[in-house]
From TrEMBL:
Protein name, entry field: SnoaL-like domain-containing protein
Domain of life of the organism encoding this protein: Bacteria
InterPro entries noted in UniProt: NTF2-like_dom_sf, SnoaL-like
Ranges where the SnoaL-like domain occurs: 30-80
Family matches, as SUPFAM superfamilies: NTF2-like (SSF54427)
A Pfam family: SnoaL_2
Amino acid sequence: MTTEYQNDHVPDTQVAAERERAYEPDALARLWVERANEGDAEGMAVYEPDAVMAFPIGHEHHGREAIQRAFAGMLEKFTYFPMEQSLPTLLLGDIALTSSVPQDNSRGRYQVPRRQPDGSWLRVLHSSGYFGEPS
């Protein structure tokens, strides 16, 4: 397993204040797809500062900035991202489990978002379900 770590953490208060925020866990997927199709790697990083994402499986990206860099690499290879069918969301207080049915060769996507103090949601864990080469 390879790991990419972020050294500088961006406080939650600096999370793209002008951008639309997700006030339901399921809205994160829609925001991600819209921003991906706009080529906006920074906007795709709908994650807490210390979030962890596996993309591809076996390669972890630690921290929002590392996740954003992974998305920038992804955008160099892919320009269109379809909206996938969401599976039912599980809620437990301020955490949720979201998932979708992939339209590519992935095994499934799973995310754990957490409610923020302002009522919006950001992801803390994300498994892409993708086994290909890292971008």
